[in-house]
User: What shape does this take?
Amino acid sequence: MQRRQLGDHDGGLEVSAQGLGCMGMSYAYGPADDQESIRVIHRALDSGVTLLDTADVYGPWTNEKLVGRAIADRREQVVLATKFGNEVDENGARTGRINGRPEYVRRCVDGSLRRLGIDHIDLCYQHRVDRDVPVAETFGALAELVQQGKVRHLGISEAAPETIRAAHAVHPITAVQTEYSLFSREPEDNGVLATARELGIGFVAYSPLGRGFLAGTIRSPQDLPEDDFRRTAPRFQGANFDRNLVVVDKVREIAERKGVTASQLALAWVLAQGADVVPIPGTKRLNYLEDNIGASDVQLSDEELAAIEAVAPVGVAVGERYPEQAMNTVHL
Ligand SMILES: NC(=O)c1ccc[n+]([C@@H]2O[C@H](COP(=O)([O-])OP(=O)(O)OC[C@H]3O[C@@H](n4cnc5c(N)ncnc54)[C@H](OP(=O)(O)O)[C@@H]3O)[C@@H](O)[C@H]2O)c1
Assistant: This one.
């Protein structure tokens, strides 16, 4: 697997061209099998994937513990990224609030280190920006954690350009993480990608398969488990779902003509957006992992990129990507 460099601070952070999103192994997307998930992580590492993405809120806590178990003997092969900020109380329950207070940041990082069984976090993101705490305060606390050696690189997720600038002024940011796929091209329009590029910050594209929609295997909302987060996302509901599925099938036709899978085409499109962009597709299944890794060898010609653009221009997906309350926490 080829490598990419995230950011230019302190020499940047070298990672595999695509990472592995571990969220769905414990959270949001229905039942999962820990043993199989660990096999997926090991196969990813064997295949040259180095960047593993988790967060304290996934579970909460269980995803970090799972990732920690999986990497216990392979720490040196891993660039470990985790996140804090979707508040989790001391009993491990999600409160629904966002918390960027310095004392909370310190507690979170210590908790993540413990659960992951590691002595430093390679890339620590503020998961969501706290409207009530200036981002400079949050990043001031993070900068101290860098000085203490508990964290190597800093990141921020779902932040507006002015927030990214304010945080970067306190301590250089290595990666901005935002949803980015053929179904979520907002970063091209809202200044987030441009700001990251201007400041020398890498861009980590989360949900690069549109939360699985672009793979083409989800044919109806009823295909999703009862408690699956996606059932609450407007994009996956009712008439929105049907309209979005039409786009998915057009993308799939382009993939079929090229002899690749729909997932590979969707990931290759993200990879083609620039050497500073690193997608982190998520899966808990070996066969999906293998499929996604294959995307790293898929080159898209200008004609193919134009054909994709024609069926999936900016804003093509209908329906918000999060339910209303969660939408309020993105792009402050
Ligand atoms: N910063 C943030 O706020 C934020 C938000 C969301 C996610 N993330 C991170 O980004 C990572 C990736 O995002 P995501 O998991 O939400 O979305 P995604 O990568 O776009 O899609 C994941 C879904 O697609 C399915 N899938 C994966 N590969 C497939 C393939 N080759 N064929 C068919 N289906 C396939 C998975 O199924 P299975 O589950 O059955 O394997 C899963 O349901 C997460 O794991 C998490 O680490 C960050």
Q: What stands out?
A: The chain has a mean pLDDT of 97.
